Amino acid sequence: MGDLRASAKVHSVSFAAPRCSGDSGDCSPDGDDSEPVPSQPSFSFLSAVSSGAANSDCRPVERGPSPSTEGKETRGQREDTDDEEAVALACHKGSLFSQEERGLSLPLSPVEEESGGDSGSEFKREEVSPSLHREPGERVAPGKEEREEEHGDPSAEVPSSAEHKMPSTVFQSKGGLPGFFAALLGGKEADGAAGPPPRPPEAPVSPFRPQGDGETESHESAVSAGPSASSSSSSLSSSSFSSSSCTALKTRGSSEEEGWETRVEARGVRTRNEAQEGGPQSVSHGLERSEENALEARETQELEETESRQLLRDHGGKMGACVLRDSDEDLCLFRLWGPHVDRCWVQLNPTKAGESPRRFELKNEGNALWGTVLRGVPVGTPYEFVLHSSWNDCFAQEGDELHRRDPYARHTDFFSNTCYVTDASRFPWKHLQSFDPPTWNKLIIYELHPGTFSPASADRTVFETLVDKLDHIRSLNFNAVEFLPVQEFGGEWGYNPRLLLATHGKYGTPDQLRKLVDECHRKGLAVIFDLVLNHGSAKLNSLWNWDGYGKDASGGIYFEGGGESGWGRKFSFHKREVRDMILAAALCFIEEYGADGLRLDSVHSMPWDLLQELTHAVRSKHPSKILIAEVTPENPQICNSAGFDSCWIHSAYYDAIKVTRGQDGNHHLDMLRAMIDVHRGFRMSHQGVNSLLGSHDQAGNKQGGHTDGRAGRYFVDLFGGRNNWHSRAQCRMWYSLQAVCRGLPMMFMGTETHQDKWWNVDEQHKMNWNFVENHDPLAEQMMNLVAAANKLRLSFPSLTDDHAPVRFCHLDYQNRVLGFVRGSLLVVLNCSESQWEGRDYEVQTDCVNRKFKQVFNSQAAEFGGWEASWSSADRNLSSSVHARLPVNLPKWSVTVYERQE
């Protein structure tokens, strides 16, 4: 085998509730995968928009006619801040904001005008119909005749405000108080005069509201919210009036005469007209021109009852919005699970100005399933679900109707309840079928966080810019890339999923993710997705209280009985419907996004039988896909019984730190032996994933550099930083060792450039591309080492053989030197400051009078070492009659010799 040095050169909504503890009401917006933070005061949605707050109790409000506002349009200005999730909180609630405007200014009632906008002023209360008067908490639903009288045909278009007749006095929660919001958003009354500030709340805000000071998203670009008018849940939330104790007022008319509007403009949130001007937002909803034309020309119709029910039966396993591919028409099935739903609709939101949302009622199929099939629903159609629930609660301040995202949606608007109809089968894959992924035992994995590895540019999303960085990964001789979660999440790192099947809107669209996967395959990179299926997001959780508000703040149907994980509420694993959604998510990322494998986060938080069910479901359909588990502590039964193929070995990283520091006395060589061979209890090499220099868990730090009981640093920073030669030499040694030992090697982004400090999502701790683009000498040395070590591993079959044993032949406890044999290779590891030159160190081998050629040296000059560290670069070495081989032995090194036949 030739010298590898020359070839190693690198060529240059539903609201999310905060996590609550028991019945105390203490809630906290946990981080993605950090330790739980102390409880914080509950967040008031209104306080996120204004320092004032409205009365939180239900009270009668007299409603007058809305004055004409033609030509009167104001724009609310938003401070330049990086906290996009605060904007999401302000925009997410459908009954308050439309997607197009991101705000509204409501006309004052005559009584409020007389009182200067003070909602606390006295006014005459008119007689209220008994059907509209309910005591707080009373659950009396109207009969069919009463509903039809008040609602009209729910499948018909929503009437404009001029056509809609409202009772003169209705009970209204503060979410729809006109006078307050006129002062809140515009600060002016109908005539333009400033009104007095709103009065402070007289009752405490519900502790189950989402926190407003969530983790700051530092990504400068966010994917647009899609078609501007598509999330008109605000206009629809008040289009129907039932007789519950709190009735949502109509907040925005569909006619121009009722066009009192205020816009809240935020970074990453733009109107449709603005999106058409250019930039990444203009295509962020992922629609091709032909699809946009189809949307404009659509004529959606309900199928005949018999035909619809037959199609629902024929496609009984489908959930969410599913294009029926066995039809020549644009048929789309909509189905949801809602045990506490009384009635529900799919609302097709507008795709252009002047349109009104349209609703189509879902039929009760039994077993808490509701569905319908519509004709004329092309791909890209924006939609959301609207529910009437027996679990509704006026104190939740959502009004009569619950506007919800589709739990099975693949494509969403991050800032609203809007989802988009998708069809993965239409994507033109080029390399999915032709790509031949590496066998499991040959995987060499590069782990990265998409948002900080390749941030979005002015006109391209994260998924699009990532394509340009694949050559960097491939030049280092990696053959697999593992993406930290790309499921839609709240927070920063990706480990707080809002939905399980949708892609993260701030990264790009589902088709852009597929394009990224296709490009990975074209360049010879297998794709592994990191999935979080054990808990939901602690903020902006789209599944929280999905079909109504459960008892004891349990989180509703998807979370009740789940318990706490430490990062967010666990799912209701005991429910068949929840399990089905989890299984669907795992299969979705393989079948629709083209994954070659999955890594499941914290599976120790999930039931054992569910893990077995999941691995069986994947294995029965896709036996070649690798399933990797994170379980702590490492448990061999995760592979032997639960059905996973591999497991992260976190302990090896901490053992490497102990050995480097010289801890545990003479036990360090015993720890090394456990690291080099297959991990305790595992049988095959591919069953353990080694990241001796740390994964995102060890390199990441959210505490501003504080260790918080963990390392929270890049490995090079633990022992002196990138400017310390010894620290760099130790990094070279450990990466080289994981390339020649059993197990699958993995490296986290930035390690290859000796990136120092720690990783996080802020600008100072993202992937530092200056080291690569400016050819930083220290970065070049480490990248050369990584490329050479990876090539060495793939060049010798004995290093990737699942069953090839490790034979330890040399143990020098005093000098901390260890030698072992893998096939024809002799590997010598020196974990000390001692070094030997002039070939005056003898290594015990397993053969007598054999010739050896040195093929690798982690202290070679091109890697940052020195030329004299080589034992012999141009001739063979011979072992003695005592099977001893005289060699040079550099400090902190891995040297490899090939036995000559």
Report on this structure:
Helices cover 22% and strands 17% of the residues. The chain is an alpha/beta fold and 901 residues long. Among the domains are: 290-425, Immunoglobulin-like (Sandwich), CATH 2.60.40; 443-536 and 595-800, Alpha-Beta Barrel (TIM Barrel); 805-899, Golgi alpha-mannosidase II (Immunoglobulin-like). The strands form eight sheets. It has an eight-stranded parallel barrel with strand order 18-19-20-21-22-23-24-25, surrounded by four helices. Strands 10, 11, 14, 15, 16 and 17 form a six-stranded antiparallel sheet that branches. Helix 13 (576-591) runs parallel beside helix 14 (608-621), helix 16 (650-661) packs antiparallel against helix 17 (668-676) and helix 20 packs parallel to helix 22. It is elongated. The N and C termini lie close together (11 Å).
